[in-house]
Amino acid sequence: EVLLVESGGGLVQPGGSLRLTCVGSGFNFDDYAMSWVRQASGKGLEWVSAIAWNGGSTNYADSVKGRFTISRDNAKNTVYLQMNSLKPEDTAVYYCNAVYIRNYWGQGTQVIVSS
Fold first, then answer.
1. For residues 24 and 1, is the Cβ–Cβ distance under 8 A?
2. Contact 113, 84 (CB under 8 A)
3. 92-101, pLDDT tens digit by residue?
């Protein structure tokens, strides 16, 4: 069974930080590019960041560039999203996405940025 399990979400004040974690199992994790995608309430999916299978390249949406950092540890089948200087507009459910031959999604973790 393929699983992607996100964790690390929660309530944080504006300007604060969170680190999201996504652990994959049931597939060859290090063959897959990994992305983070978010969805705010009542809105569509927004791509946030992606990292190549070997961590050799990363990309970010303009809305998070300079504040978020994606990384991965293939030995642990894990991808991270370090989120700094959080803003209320970062409030969303954050999903982990694995893309290669197949496309796998996690169940999401809620991030709320509010004072």
1. no
2. no
3. 999 999 999 8
Q: Which two structure tokens, joined as six digits, stand for 109?
A: 């973790």
Pairing state between β 18-25 and 45-51: unpaired
Structure tokens at 10: 């929660």
**Pairing relationship of beta strands 109-113 and 58-60 according to DSSP bridges:** unpaired
Return left, alpha or beta for 82; rule: phi > 0 is left, psi -120 to 50 is alpha, else beta: beta
pLDDT tens profile 4-60: 999 999 999 999 999 999 999 999 999 999 999 999 999 999 999 999 999 999 999
| Beta strands 10-12 and 109-113, pairing class | parallel
Cα distance between residue 22 and residue 95, in whole Å:
9
